[in-house]
Amino acid sequence: MFNDAVLAEYVRDGVVESEHRGFLAMLSADGTIFKSLGDIDTKVFPRSAIKCAQASAMVRNGLVLEPRLLALAQSSHSGGDMHMDGAREILASVGLDESALQCALDRPIGEAEKRAWGEKPAARIAMNCSGKHSAMLATCVKNGWSIESYLEHSHPLQLAIKAELENLAGETITLTSTDGCGAPLFLLSVIGLARVVHAATISSDPVHQSVINAARTFPEMVGGNGRHNTEMMQQVPGLFMKDGAEAVNVTSLADGRAIAIKVSDGSQRAFRTIVHACLKEFGIDTSFTPEKVMGGPRVIGTIRATI
C-alpha cells in the first residue's frame, strides 16, 4: 500500500520472516496526535469500525433501543442465539421480521456459533451485520422512509449516516462504495477515523454517550465470546473497541485517547499484538498472550509490534 509503515513483525528464530505493514494514528485526550506511523491522511475503507457513527445517526433520527439492543445495532456479532434473537427483537418492535433484511446471506462467524449452526444454509439473520441492518430498518419505519430501498446511497437514512460520519471525522466523504454486508461504505482517512472515535467518546451529546456506553455495558453483543473487541472491553474499564474487515480497528479510552489502525495486507493476525502495544504506550498493560511461532512442537518465535 502507499506510504505505510511496519506495524508488526513475524519472527522465527530471531529472523523476521514476514512483516505486517499499515497505518496507525494515536490521539491524546485533547485530540492532538500522540503517535503516528505511515501516512495517516491515506484514505481507507473503515468497514465495520464506524458502526458507532452509523448507530449514532440512527438514534439521532428516532431509533429508540434499550442498551443491550443498541450495542447489537453497532455489532459485528458472532451469530449466537442472543444476537439473532436480539435482531429479531429490533425488527419486531416496528412490526417487521427477518424477511425485511437485505444484508448478505451468511453463516455465523464465531467458532462455537459455527458449530452450533451446523450444515444449515446461510441466512441473513445469522450474518454478522444483521443487528445493524435491523436497526436501519427500524429507523426507516420510525421516519416513514422506504424499507425496500434502505441500502441505496441516496436513501435519507444513508445520507444521515454520511453526515454524522463527516461531522465526527471533521472531513468530507469523497467516495461512497458498498460494504460486504450490502450497506453503503464511506471512504475516510486514517486520522479521520481516529477522530471519529475520539469525538464520539468525549462528546457531551446524549446520542453519542448512549451509543458508546451501550457497547461498553454489553460488549458480548458487539462481538461475542472470545472475540477481541469483546474481551478488551470486558478487561479494561471505560475502553471502547470496534474492529472491521480487512484489518481495521478503532479503540478509545474514557478520557478520549484514541487509536485507529489499518493493516495493509488485510490480515488480523497481528491485531492483538499491535493493540496491546498501543495501549501500553498509553500506560495500560493488558493481559496478553503473545502469538506463538512454532517449529515442530517448540515455540521458536512470536509476532512483535514495532510501534
The ordered string of helix (H) and strand (E) elements is EEEEHHHHHHEEEHHHHEEEHEE
Strand content: 15-25%
- Share of helix among residues? 25-40%
CATH architecture: 3-Layer(aba) Sandwich
Q: Largest beta sheet, briefly?
A: 8 strands, antiparallel
For this structure, the CATH topology is Beta-lactamase
Gyration radius (Cα, Å) is 19 Å
Unreliable stretches covering 5 or more consecutive residues: none
State the separation between the terminal residues, measured CA to CA: 18 Å
The DSSP helix count reads 11
Mean pLDDT: 97
Number of extended strands: 12
Give the overall shape, derived from the CA principal axes: globular
CATH class: Alpha Beta
Q: Quickly count the domains.
A: 1
Structural class: alpha+beta
Pfam families: Asparaginase_II
Structure in words:
There is one protein chain. This protein is α+β, with helices and mostly antiparallel strands and 307 residues long. It has a single domain (5-64, 148-305), classed as Beta-lactamase (3-Layer(aba) Sandwich), CATH 3.40.710. The protein is 36% helix and 21% strand. It has eleven helices and twelve strands. The strands form three sheets. Strands 1, 2, 3, 8, 9, 10, 11 and 12 form an eight-stranded antiparallel sheet that branches. The radius of gyration is 19 Å and the shape is globular. The mean pLDDT is 97.
